[in-house]
Design a protein that fits this description.
Helix content: 40-55%
Number of strands: 10
Structural class: alpha+beta
Shape: elongated
Radius of gyration: 23 Å
CATH topology of the largest domain: Cytidine Deaminase, domain 2
Number of helices: 4
CATH class of the largest domain: Alpha Beta
Low-confidence stretches: none
Amino acid sequence: MDSEKEIEENESKLKKFYIVFMSFLIVVLALSYFLLGPRIFEIVGSLTESSELKNNLTIETKNLTIVLEKNVYKSLKDIYFENHDREFKACLLGNIKNRTYYVSEIYIPKQKGEFNKVVYTSCPKETIISLHSHPFLRCIPSKQDFLSFSNFKKINPNVLMMIMCSEDRFYVYGN
């Protein structure tokens, strides 16, 4: 008899804990949505899907590595800060060896950028990375980004798409 009562009390305590925990979780999610806005989920997704530039100017993904020469990274950073209020386009040139993309040059095509889009002339076919920026910490590509990349990939099948969404955070897609 005592053991049945203990089991019921334990089940009751477990139910109370579960209800309190789920209530707390719902309140936290609701507050984060209303206080931080719906964009917080986009930022969290961007942080999990993008890569941070390492001190030795490399970006490592599961399948490949990108190595930026110091002058290329400095130029990218300068352009990023000059265009903090709009997107920009850059074509990265260099060579590819054993799944490592070595970037030695940057080419800036003719372009017109806005806060959430950039219209530009095509990159040279020798481009190994087609890069454009997005608003701060919003690295996830749009359908248009994938469409543009798919069209350029017909010209150069080894090209990567890279999105810069802070001075040292990049989303890499391709190969």
